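Revision sheet: structure tokens.
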Amino acid sequence: MTRWQQTWTGGLLLLTATVVAEVPDAFEKGMEALLEGNFAEAWCLWRPLAEQGHAESQYNLGWLYANGNGVAVDMDRAFYWWKQAAAQGHADAEFAIGLAYTTGEGVERDLAEAVRWIYRAAWQGHPDARDILLRLAVDPEIDVLAIVPELLDQSWFGWTGEVTGKRINVRAGPGISERIVAQLEQHQQVRVLGKRGDWLRIQLPPREDETAPRLAWVYHSLLEPVGTP
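Predicted:
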């Protein structure tokens, strides 16, 4: 089973749990055909609906092309249909596009573009998209917050850490040679937004000075997670 097929299987489980009752009968028949392994019939049922603008059909048609189920593998067509669905705010389609850019399967790997698409899905509450953004936040290849600054204002992004030392210095960058930008007191809680090596990126508490930095870095052992990060 390919990585795409594994991903789609998970998507199907989510899809069957979230599809509302008001769907075209042809779409439901296409889902039945898909689960029976009759991919060609699914394609025949979904293609007209996709051309009429049905987002679920567009999304699933994209996976048929991505996997080569009932048709030849064609990532250009897969992207075309995913983007048609994404234009209607289809979170799973946005996530599929982001996932493709993350893995580089069928498209040139581009983590920055992946983050932009995955964020669109995460903003709508897509749990897998939110999880991947948290993982990418510790990837040394990219700076997720630089690509999508809006993440700073999303309460679901990051985790809460509590200061373990009596008074600790926080710095402008991940290293002891970086300048000190603030101090935190013991038991004070901050939001952790990423990691570079042994250093955690945090959001500083609000301050009266609007020009003061909103982000800083602290050595990992000086914070402990509150709950499960």
